[in-house]
């Protein structure tokens, strides 16, 4: 992937798109790249919903290739929920298509005056930024059908009405093979940042762009086959045994064509909706007492349509039940509140602003200020040099350590390091457990990366990459409160594709106004 595409939404005369080489970010991809750009270019003390923040969208190192399970996309920014550097990643087709088009990252900068709204199109024929006032208030499913009528082979990243309102529970939807907005960039309001940038959708149309060829084709085929075999026999990624293979009442399908695992549910038995995502199922059942598969599917559909984080919405709905707004277990009442969020009523905006706002408005004990899943800035409390993580990743075992309380903190730390590295390669999060438990599968994955890019990385290099990503995020988040010198990207992949000494400096190619 050769270029970074920057779109300045506050440029004089209208949005301006500029493409330029990776430069000092050469060798970085996915989460490593989003983290490096935010850490280097965003002021730590800026407002998360201000023009100085940036939204970075980056495919992984293996995106656009024929490798299995490599369709994850990294999206990073200063998070409006926590005020910290945060990254989230969805599945879908966007990462693969950006990889085929040679786009290493899309960086949305500035903010349009007067609340203007735009649609971005990226394709073989160039980049376009067009006014999208006619799409204002359109929900995600309707928008994706609109895109499909015009560019049926495209992928779409889009926000719903909640993102346009810039509320903390807003997500960015990512479409699947059928152009359905079923994958979401959640965790802390990234959709609100995209709404502040005035971008309703980013449509990626690969046209006739082909899958990226490997540097060493025969080695790539052999390593890819071994990697896929390892995933096939592991419970969380295998087609037959995966607990994620189906939602309530549904069958499973792969997130992307290149995916060798079944991790997405297809249809709920009763009402024809897509079955609830696992995030919706566990958050709404545990927090709200809602367990009916059809009710969960309906709530999941509504939240995906309006662009709401299912985990934090489940927490907020549970607090609304505690406050007596609706009864505990009232699925119809929960659906009514979610519809109010999409409509932007006062109560709906409170719900869509997350559990902390819900608790404050109704005088309840405040929940954790952080998103419900563990975040990376707590990952370096111990083992700062990652030596134990390296040893853990090198060894294959039967998973019995998970039963030992003494090792749980170490396991959590190792998972975070491994997850950060995976988020940079583009490989799916489901791969993490497989490579931790199966040493040969980890080696096959590294061999696949090496054969694709003509590199000689070792498993230790990926561990070091993951550790450096977490350290960079941690350092930025410390600078939110305590200013410090600029953070430069580090790690074994930094410079892997750098131009040779004495080469010409990077030049930016303006693609002009939309």
Descriptive notes:
With 514 residues, this protein is an alpha+beta fold. The chain has a domain at 278-361: Aldehyde Ferredoxin Oxidoreductase Protein, subunit A, domain 2, CATH 1.10.569. It has helices spanning 30-41, 94-100, 140-150, 161-164, 190-196, 217-232, 278-288, 293-306, 310-322, 331-343, 346-352, 355-361, 387-394, 408-425, 430-437, 439-453, 459-479; strands at residues 3-8, 16-21, 55-59, 73-78, 85-88, 103-109, 118-123, 126-131, 155-158, 172-174, 183-185, 199-205, 252-253, 264-265, 509-513. A seven-stranded mixed beta sheet has the order 5-4-3-6-1-2-15. A six-stranded mixed beta sheet has the order 8-7-12-9-10-11. It is globular. Mean pLDDT is 82; it is low at 239-251, 265-269, 373-403 and 483-514.
Task: Based on the model shown, name its key terms.
17 helices, Aldehyde Ferredoxin Oxidoreductase Protein, subunit A, domain 2, 7-stranded mixed β-sheet, single chain, 514 residues, disordered C terminus, 15 strands, alpha+beta
Indicate the low-confidence ranges by residue numbers: 239-251, 265-269, 373-403, 483-514
Shape by Cα distribution: globular
CATH class assignment of the domain at 278-361: Mainly Alpha
Second rung of CATH, namely the architecture of the domain at 278-361: Orthogonal Bundle
**Beta-strand segment tally:** 15
CATH domain fold name of the domain at 278-361: Aldehyde Ferredoxin Oxidoreductase Protein, subunit A, domain 2
- How much is the average pLDDT? 82
């Amino acid at each position: 992937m050769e270029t970074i595409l920057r779109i300045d939404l506050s440029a004089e005369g209208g949005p301006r798109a500029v493409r330029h080489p990776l430069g000092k970010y050469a060798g970085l991809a996915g989460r490593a790249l989003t983290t490096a750009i935010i850490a280097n270019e965003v002021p730590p003390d800026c407002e998360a919903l201000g023009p100085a923040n940036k939204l970075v969208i980056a495919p992984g190192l293996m995106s656009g290739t024929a490798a299995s399970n490599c369709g994850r996309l990294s999206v990073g920014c200063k998070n409006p929920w926590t005020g910290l550097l945060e990254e989230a990643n969805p599945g879908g087709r966007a990462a693969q298509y950006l990889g085929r088009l040679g786009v290493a990252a899309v960086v949305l900068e500035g903010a349009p005056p007067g609340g203007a709204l735009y649609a971005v199109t990226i394709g073989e024929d160039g980049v376009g930024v067009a006014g999208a006032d006619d799409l204002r208030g359109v929900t995600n499913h309707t928008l994706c059908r609109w895109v499909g009528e015009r560019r049926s082979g495209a992928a779409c990243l889009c926000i719903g009405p909640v993102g346009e309102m810039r509320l903390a529970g807003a997500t960015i939807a990512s479409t699947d093979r059928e152009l359905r907005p079923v994958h979401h960039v959640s965790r802390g309001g990234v959709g609100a940042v995209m709404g502040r940038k005035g971008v309703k959708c980013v449509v990626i149309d690969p046209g006739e762009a082909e899958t990226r060829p490997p540097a060493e084709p025969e080695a790539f085929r052999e390593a890819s086959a071994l990697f896929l075999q390892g995933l096939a026999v592991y419970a969380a990624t295998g087609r037959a045994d995966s607990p994620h293979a189906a939602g309530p009442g549904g069958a499973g399908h792969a997130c992307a064509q290149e995916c060798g695992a079944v991790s997405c549910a297809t249809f709920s038995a009763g009402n024809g909706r897509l079955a609830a995502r696992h995030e919706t199922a566990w958050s709404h059942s545990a927090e709200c007492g809602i367990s009916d598969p059809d009710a969960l599917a309906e709530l999941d559909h509504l939240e995906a349509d309006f662009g709401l984080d299912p985990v934090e919405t489940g927490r907020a709905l549970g607090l609304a039940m505690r406050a007596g707004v609706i009864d505990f277990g009232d699925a119809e009442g929960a659906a009514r509140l979610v519809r109010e969020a999409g409509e932007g009523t006062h109560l709906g905006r409170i719900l869509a602003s997350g559990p902390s706002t819900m608790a404050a408005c109704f005088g309840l004990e405040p929940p954790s200020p952080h998103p419900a899943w563990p975040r990376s800035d707590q990952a370096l409390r111990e083992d700062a040099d990652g030596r134990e993580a390296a040893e853990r990743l090198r060894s294959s075992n039967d998973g019995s350590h998970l039963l030992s309380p003494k090792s749980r903190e170490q396991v959590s730390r190792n998972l975070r390091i491994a997850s950060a590295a995976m988020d940079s390669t583009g490989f799916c999060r489901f791969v993490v457990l497989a490579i931790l438990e199966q040493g040969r599968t980890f080696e096959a994955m590294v061999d696949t990366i090496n054969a694709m890019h003509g590199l000689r990385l070792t498993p230790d290099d990926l561990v070091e990459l993951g550790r450096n990503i977490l350290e960079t995020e941690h350092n930025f988040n410390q600078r939110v409160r305590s200013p410090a010198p600029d953070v430069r990207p580090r790690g074994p992949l930094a410079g892997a594709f750098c131009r040779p000494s004495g080469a010409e400096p990077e030049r930016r190619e303006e693609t002009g106004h939309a």
